[in-house]
Every structure is written in structure tokens, then in C-alpha cells.
């Protein structure tokens, strides 16, 4: 008999570092890659592995995320499968989730209803392909209480991750520190650390026991990476699962092992640029492990001659349905549905979300334009960064970000 597995996807994060993209939506609900939302990646990984009992714990500005999950991921309950968004319900008192561990604590009823042998707890804001069934098999074979997915990352980013130190067998976690400021590199790679991917597999009884214990601790932040994993490491019950061991069907030499935490504007932008190379660093065209999503029945994208007969073109770009590129040039960009680009405009190295409109003669460079942003005729974005800083958000690497509904002056 296959073990019973329940998947919990943590989707309540606020995503402050992605402002203004998270001004009125939860981070996992942020559009990504033209037609997807960030949460589609984790849900597709679980679904492709055959894990179809999934609860998504939401909290912060969850309306559009909720709507997306309900619309895209609704499925027949005939076989007992579901992908259900579950908001904080205040079952245990008048308070929201204090942290990711508290979100699980307040949702114990879901675990009790399902009575799984193992619980997968995955984050919702990463871009990657992974077969979670291989991690579950590793967890069962090792007999660990919790297995944490691990990946090498640059030492300079250690303060954004849970940093793992493994024992001599290369599997048991000897130390786990959440976002340390003083991490040191690995013995064989001084510029790298071993980072937690924020993805865990738990043996159910232990998960419930340790979360209930943490709930009684008034000092705790009730956070998976900050409280729960360190507790289990101290008890010698935590193992690491090396992401390099995960084999996803259809991966190319180039995108094998790809994983991006898109928690900052620059990493969000860079992950888009990873999609549009001729040999993409992350290949969305892997039909053996599809990334699922849903969008309206837009007509096909159209490229037409514009004003004074100029040819409308897009090169090195991904262009979604419903787009019209008229007498203008779009290069090295990711274009979402229903975007209009008018004559003599140029858009380069940019991410345009649904409904964006670029007026005649406008120039847009190195920018992220959120839904429905209208760039008026002749306006310039990403050309004079000092001016852009006065009116928009400009990331550390100089990417100009214009939020949903923000007005752009000519
Ligand atoms: P972070 O992503 O910084 O680090 P956190 O903010 O707790 O940790 O978010 C983890 C996941 O939980 C996200 O998917 C988030 O949306 C969700 N979440 C946060 N608060 C929640 C709440 N109150 N209710 C429901 N869901 C909530 C984590 C780990 C690190 C690891 C990185 C990898 O803590 O150890 O290295 O992920 O990116």
C-alpha cells in the first residue's frame, strides 16, 4: 500500500521585499512568467508527483490568490482529491497565524481529518521543478522524523536562508540556523552554504507533537525555519535531502537542478530573464513535467504593421495570448496576456504583466510593469534612473518597478 500523504502549502507570506508587486496580493499570488502565478510551480510539482490532497494555507491579502487556486486547481472530489485554499479561521481564538508553524497548529483539524502517514510542508514562492515523491521515498527509507530539502547557495545570501550543517554521514543535520549573519562557507566550497529550500517532509505524529509543543512556548516566533526545524535538529531527528539527487523527467542539461527564491525584485526579474534565453536556464517547454495554470480564452498573439508601415516584432521574448504588438519592437522580454504595444515604441529586457499598454514612441527598459499599467505616448522608463527613483520603485540592480494602477506621466 502506498503511504498516505497530505500536502500543506504555506502561502501566507507577506512578501515585503517584493513591494509594490505585493501591495495588494500575497507573494505566492504574484504573476510570473507571463501566464502563471508563483504558486503554480509548487502545486504543479505536487500534482505531477500524484499528490492530490493539498491544502494551501493563506492569510495575507489572499483574495486574488484564493480566486486563482479555486479557478485553476479545482478538481473533482470523486476520488477524494482536492486543492483547497484555507484561510486563517480563528478556530483556536481571535488571532491570525502568528507564523508558519502557527498556521499548521491552527489547521490541525485538516491533518486529523485526513490521517496521513506523512505530511509534506512546502513553501509557495519558488520557481523550480521537483519530484516530491523522490523526497518522500528518501524520508521513509532513512527513518528520519523530518527531512529538509537542501541546495547550495552563495555565502553572500546566507542571511536569507536557513543554513544547514550536516554531520559526517552527509545526511543528518547537525546544526540549523535561520538567516544567520555570520555564516561560513562549506569546507569544499568556501563561497557557498548549504541552504534549506523551505520544503519539508514530516512523519505525521512527530509534526503534530512538535508543533503543539512549540505552540505552548510564548517565546517562540512559531516559525518553521526559526523554531520547528531547529528543535528537531537538536533532538537528532532531522535529515537533509540533497536537491541534486532529484531527477525530473524531461529536464535539460541546462535547467537540471534549477531553483530560485524569487523573494526580491531583482531575483524576481532575473528569474524572468532565465526563461527567455534560446536555451533557457529554466525550460517552461518541458511537457513531461508541465507547469499548470489557467487563463481566459484570449485570442492568439498578433504582430502587425503600425504607423508609417513599421513592422511589429518581438525577439528573444515570450509573448502570451491576447497580445498585440503593432509597429514596435519588443526584445528580451516576458509579455503577459492582453498587452498592447503601439507604433515606434521599444520595450527591452522587461516584464509586462496583463493588460499593460505601451503608447507610441515610448521606451521601456529594464522594467517590471504590474497589471494594467499604461505608459503614455513618448514616455521613457528605465532611461533616466534618477527621475525614475523620484516616481517609482527602483531595485538595487536598477530595475524600475511600476505598481498596479500607478499613474505614469508622459
Ligand atoms: P522565508 O521564506 O523567509 O524562509 P517565511 O517568511 O516563514 O520564511 O515563509 C515560508 C513560507 O511560509 C512561504 O511560502 C510563506 O508564504 C509562508 N508563510 C509565512 N508566514 C505564514 C503564515 N503566517 N501563514 C501561512 N504561511 C506563511 C523559508 C525558511 C528558510 C528557507 C527559505 C527558502 O524559513 O529556512 O531557507 O524559506 O526560501
Provide structural commentary:
- Residues 299-402 form the Glucose-1-phosphate adenylyltransferase/Bifunctional protein GlmU-like C-terminal hexapeptide domain.
- Homotetramer.
- Its EC number is 2.7.7.27.
- It contains 9 helices and 29 strands.
- The model has no long low-confidence stretch (mean pLDDT 93).
- The strands form 7 sheets. Strands 5-4-1-6-11-8-12 form a 7-stranded mixed beta sheet, sandwiched between helices. Strands 16-19-22-25-29-28 form a 6-stranded mixed beta sheet. Strands 14-17-20-23-26 form a 5-stranded parallel beta sheet, with no helix packed on it.
- With 410 residues, it is an alpha/beta fold.
- It folds into 2 domains: 5-272, Spore Coat Polysaccharide Biosynthesis Protein SpsA, Chain A (Alpha-Beta Complex), CATH 3.90.550.10; 302-402, Hexapeptide repeat proteins (UDP N-Acetylglucosamine Acyltransferase, domain 1).
- The N and C termini lie far apart (65 Å).
- It binds adenosine-5'-diphosphate-glucose.
- Adenosine-5'-diphosphate-glucose is lined by residues 10-13, 27-28, 57, 59, 97, 99-100, 103, 123-125, 161-162, 178, 195-198, 223-225, 261.
Amino acid at each position: 500500500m502506498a503511504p498516505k500523504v497530505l500536502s500543506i502549502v504555506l502561502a501566507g507570506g507577506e512578501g515585503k521585499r517584493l513591494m509594490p508587486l505585493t501591495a495588494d496580493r500575497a507573494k505566492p499570488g504574484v504573476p510570473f512568467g507571463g501566464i502563471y502565478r508563483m504558486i503554480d510551480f509548487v502545486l504543479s510539482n505536487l500534482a505531477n508527483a500524484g499528490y492530490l490532497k493539498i491544502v494551501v494555507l493563506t492569510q495575507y491579502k489572499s483574495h486574488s490568490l484564493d480566486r486563482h487556486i479555486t479557478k485553476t486547481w479545482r478538481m473533482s472530489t470523486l476520488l477524494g482529491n482536492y486543492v483547497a485554499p484555507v484561510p486563517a479561521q480563528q478556530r483556536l481564538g481571535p488571532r491570525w497565524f502568528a507564523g508558519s508553524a502557527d498556521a499548521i497548529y491552527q489547521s490541525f483539524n485538516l491533518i486529523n481529518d485526513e490521517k496521513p502517514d506523512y505530511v509534506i510542508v512546502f513553501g509557495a514562492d519558488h520557481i523550480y521543478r521537483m519530484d516530491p515523491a523522490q523526497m518522500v521515498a528518501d524520508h521513509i527509507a532513512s527513518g528520519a522524523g523530518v527531512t529538509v530539502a537542501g541546495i547550495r547557495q552563495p555565502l553572500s545570501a546566507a542571511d536569507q536562508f536557513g543554513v544547514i550543517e550536516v554531520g559526517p554521514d552527509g545526511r543528518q543535520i547537525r546544526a540549523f540556523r535561520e538567516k544567520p549573519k555570520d555564516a561560513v562557507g562549506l569546507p569544499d566550497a568556501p563561497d557557498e552554504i548549504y541552504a534549506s529550500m523551505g520544503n519539508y517532509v514530516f512523519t505525521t505524529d512527530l509534526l503534530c507533537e512538535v508543533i503543539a509543543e512549540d505552540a505552548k512556548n510564548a517565546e517562540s516566533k512559531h516559525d518553521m525555519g526559526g523554531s520547528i526545524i531547529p528543535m528537531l535538529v537538536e533532538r537528532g531527528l532531522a535529515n537533509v535531502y540533497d536537491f541534486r539527487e532529484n531527477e525530473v523527467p524531461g529536464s535539460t542539461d541546462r535547467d537540471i537542478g534549477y531553483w530560485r527564491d524569487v523573494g526580491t525584485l531583482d531575483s524576481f526579474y532575473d528569474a524572468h530573464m532565465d526563461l527567455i534565453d534560446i536555451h533557457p536556464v529554466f525550460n517552461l517547454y518541458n511537457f513531461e513535467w508541465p507547469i499548470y495554470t489557467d487563463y481566459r480564452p484570449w485570442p492568439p498573439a498578433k504582430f502587425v504593421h503600425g504607423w508609417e508601415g513599421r513592422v511589429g516584432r518581438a525577439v528573444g521574448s515570450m509573448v502570451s495570448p491576447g497580445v498585440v504588438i503593432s509597429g514596435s519592437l519588443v526584445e528580451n522580454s516576458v509579455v503577459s496576456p492582453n498587452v498592447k504595444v503601439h507604433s515606434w515604441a521599444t520595450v527591452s529586457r522587461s516584464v509586462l504583466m496583463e493588460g499593460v499598454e505601451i503608447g507610441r514612441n515610448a521606451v521601456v527598459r529594464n522594467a517590471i510593469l504590474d497589471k494594467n499599467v499604461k505608459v503614455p505616448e513618448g514616455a521613457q522608463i528605465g532611461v533616466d534612473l534618477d527621475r525614475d527613483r523620484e516616481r517609482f520603485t527602483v531595485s538595487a540592480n536598477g530595475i524600475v518597478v511600476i505598481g498596479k494602477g500607478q499613474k505614469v506621466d508622459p
